[in-house]
Write a structure and sequence with these properties.
The chain is mainly alpha-helical. It folds into 2 domains: about 1-120, no CATH class; about 125-209, Serine Threonine Protein Phosphatase 5, Tetratricopeptide repeat (Alpha Horseshoe). The protein has helices spanning about 1-65, 70-80, 85-100, 105-120, 125-140, 145-150, 160-170, 175-190, 195-205. The chain is elongated. Belongs to the YfgM family. This is Ancillary SecYEG translocon subunit. One of its GO terms (molecular function) is protein-containing complex binding. It comes from Pandoraea aquatica.
Length: about 210
């Protein structure tokens, strides 16, 4: 009989516990199921976005080969508005910027680079966009803006940014500052990068003693 009473007591305890906490358990399970479903739905959306962006990037490459500036600009706009969260968007911005610049559309190239500076997900693309945008600003004689774009580069890009800073300072006739920038570039450049080192050294030598 004691065993029977113990079982009955356990059942009553379970009933009491469920009466008190049952709703919480049910809602917790519902939330978990909804979260899991939402996560799967988001993964599906991301994959779908990546596939569609990849197809659009293929169209961009075709337009670049055909030197179709209008189509390049349109695809870049579509990529940024519809697929900005994918890696293809930053790749598109840099490729479109180069194509537009080569075709003489400096304003279009500048807009693409500015988008990449503000929106690129990968730091490599962001820093490369800054470097190229500084070059565009240099050509426009917007020297202060160019120098601002080259401020505080991450260590891996210090040499390239210093070299471009030297170019801007030369254009401003600030020879001493330019010499300092080129020397910094040489100091930061990989010893194995002989081609780039020779190029920077040439610019430094051209400034004289």
């Amino acid at each position: 009989m004691s065993s029977y009473h113990e079982e009955q007591e356990q059942i009553e305890n379970v009933k009491a516990w469920w009466k008190q906490y049952g709703n919480y358990v049910i809602w917790t399970l519902v939330v978990i199921m909804l979260a899991y479903g939402g996560w799967n739905l988001w993964r599906y959306y991301e994959r779908k976005q990546a596939v569609e962006a990849g197809v659009l990037y293929g169209e961009l490459e075709t337009a670049v080969t055909a030197n179709d500036k209008v189509k390049v600009a349109r695809i870049a706009s579509d990529m940024e508005s519809k697929f900005s969260g994918t890696p293809y968007a930053q790749m598109t911005a840099l490729l479109a910027a180069k194509t537009l610049a080569d075709s003489g559309d400096v304003a279009g190239a500048k807009a693409q680079l500015q988008w990449a500076v503000s929106n690129a997900k990968d730091d490599e693309y962001k820093q490369l966009a800054k470097l190229r945008l500084a070059g565009v600003l240099l050509d426009e004689k917007a020297y202060d803006e160019a120098l601002k774009m080259l401020d505080n580069p991450p260590a891996p890009y210090a040499a390239l940014f210093a070299d471009r800073r030297g170019d801007v300072l030369v254009a401003q006739s600030k020879v001493a500052d330019a010499r300092t920038a080129y020397k910094l570039a040489l100091d930061k450049l990989d010893k194995q990068d002989s081609g780039m080192r020779q190029f920077v050294q040439f610019k430094l030598d051209a400034l004289g003693a």
